[in-house]
Predict the 3D structure of the following.
Amino acid sequence: MVWVAFAFATSETARVDEALAEDTVRLRIPSIGVDALIEDVGITPAGAMDTPKGPDNVGWYSLGSRPGEVGTATIAGHRGWKNGSTAVFDQLDALRKGDVIQVVGSGGKLDSFIVRETRVYGRDEYAPEVFVSSDGTHLNLITCVGDWDRSLKTSAERLVVFADKVSHI
């Protein structure tokens, strides 16, 4: 995945407290059968948001808000994998407004989010709203979609699911 990271990190948000990062452990999306381990990811040397190491986990952009905290938490996952193998976000495009996304902490704390909308962006399209919001508690999920560019080893577009935290379901 190549995506320019548009996080406007301050010195406060750029510091990652390892204890906090380790507290968020799983992403669950019941409607599409996702139950994945959450890895911390940062920025690649090319300036893009990094991705999880393999097809089964998701990657939380650790320079932004932590899932469940005020601000925008961003999580990436792969869609499709080598040799036709499945990946965690293969069905992400099936999410619809009102679907539930859950983030589970190591102590069993559950934060629930409701899908607000989905959008498709061009690979290099400027989209700061994916990483930053002005208010509320949000979770955005990202995966690659569109035609595969063999020379760049990435897809032409990005699917983003925007979700908002709810107090209870």
